[in-house]
Amino acid sequence: MSDLISIKGGREGLRLRLDDVVDWQVLTDALAQQLAQKSGFFVGARLMLEIGDRTLNDAQMADLLGLMQQHGVLVESLGATARESRDAARASGLAARPLPRYAEPTAPASASEHDGMLVTRTVRSGQVLRHHGNITLIGDVNPGAELIAGGSVVVWGRLRGLVHAGALGNADAVVCALELRPTQLRIAEQITRAPDGAGRLSPETARIEGGRIVVEPWEGSKRG
Q1: Is the Cβ–Cβ distance between 47 and 77 less than 8 Å?
Q2: pTM of the model
């Protein structure tokens, strides 16, 4: 994402990790910029916030949570080394837990979009599957469901809901499905509706070419 902010995924869900050394105003400005630029990924997200060794008082904690809420992000818990930060989080109604010290006194490492998620189920209407890396789904995506990935999306089934690949800005991301009939298809900042000819049973893939989303047979998308 940036030199100061990284996002990871795990069994506990999404974790947003913030640099714990840079000036507070510089960090919050960078965070506001990233939340605005990557709104397609963050809006509606629920995540854990990690601030390492940084000490936050009640006012700073309120400002941080207000910034996240302003961009449609719900912080469910906070990880911090400093007891004062954990106390401020609990005073704001968050769960809080101690963290080991960051290994480096510099910016946290960027998340890899190749850190993939494999899911085997049907994503039903009203459900959102969100991951910072690639998503591979063995199953269907029903109308009203959403897949949001920082990387590419592969659906071994019917894709009939909303899909947003490259939601963290990766214009090289692709969307592949055995049946590609999305209500809305997004790759990075490009948006389209269901492609012409959607509904064919042949596998298809979508990618950005020439500044627009193009759809072609999955087999035909292979490049030498």
Answers
A1: no
A2: 0.80
